[in-house]
Write a structure and sequence with these properties.
Aminopeptidase; 11 helices; four-stranded antiparallel β-sheet; 15 strands; 2 domains; globular
Length: about 400
Amino acid sequence: MTVRTIRSLAAVPAEEWNALQLDGNPFLRHEFLLALEQQHCVGGSTGWTVTHLLLEDSRGSLLGAIPLYLKSHSWGEFVFDWSWAKAYSQANLDYYPKLVSIAPFTPVPGARMLTRIDADTDAIRLQLVRALIAFAIEASVSSIHVLFTTEAERQLLARQGFMLRKDCQFHWHNRGVDGFGDFDAFMATFRSEKRKKALRERRRVQEGGVTFRTLHGSDMTPALWKVVFGFSAATFESRGHEHYLNEGFFRAVSRALPDSVMVKLAVHEDRPIASAIFFRSDDTLYGRYWGAAADFHSLHFETCYYQGIEYCIEQGLRHFEPGTQGEHKVPRGFEPTATWSAHWIADPRFRRAIDQYLAQERASIDEYMESVREHLPFRRDDGASPAGNEQSDNAPRTD
């Protein structure tokens, strides 16, 4: 087997990359990652240098890969290490560049050690991790950050000297053998006062005369993308930031992956007033970007959450991941769910200090998630329990 890095995913045929075990994750597909390059969201002066690591057999066939970027900053990762960079600077050391494995700007858990379906998964993953560490040492980077990784990968990474970091997102789950029959069936799992509040929020939007259109990638024209992207860009601008992506990217990815893109467009008096951009797989809906040009009571909750839940129920999707942060999601039926990242630090002094910090942070996250569960809106007798949190104890130490 041979290892090499590439500076563009265009160097790998789409069918070969997509034949890796992506678990249906649209953000790992060749089309998504290449669109980021072609629309200049990564590469150039963005601070995201494409450095994908490939593992090939003697014939040059792809056995495995790691989506990888050389970073000169920490924007767009959603696992915050600004304090680590500051500590390095105070010690007169360079924290950047660093290596990051993630689908850029996408805080969605998924595989990072991608393997060919017919290959020995465990063996290929081990080779990929060892090759990643060797490349980091050769490139003299400060660190490697494998973000929003899977359970199996984080165990492997821990055994190879990576330190584990825990965080919390809020996800919705379509419960039961066949899922909820309709939105009313989902509301029936709520305690009375919580159900009344949720239904009142939905009713206020309806009484305001707002209706919704469900649009998939093939429905989105350049004119519609101009409107929808404008809503989203305005949200970033209101917070003092530029959008990570651009209108061209959304047009490109909706053409390349029409079945993976979904937009909820809010309309009032025949005029679009708000939208939320989603991606989907065969079993999961992913909420990504939202924006509005009008102020209606509960419009954000309806557009980003209730409409997404209703879509999942109608489409038979099992999960809804609406993005990072947001305790306001809890009373609307989203449950605390653990997410993990793994970190390799070259400097042994910083490695020891960060390892101690992460142990304390994991304990704090556990306490936080336990306290949040007390505020879930569900009836106490419906058997609902937070999904994806089967391990709430501290992750194993790696020293």
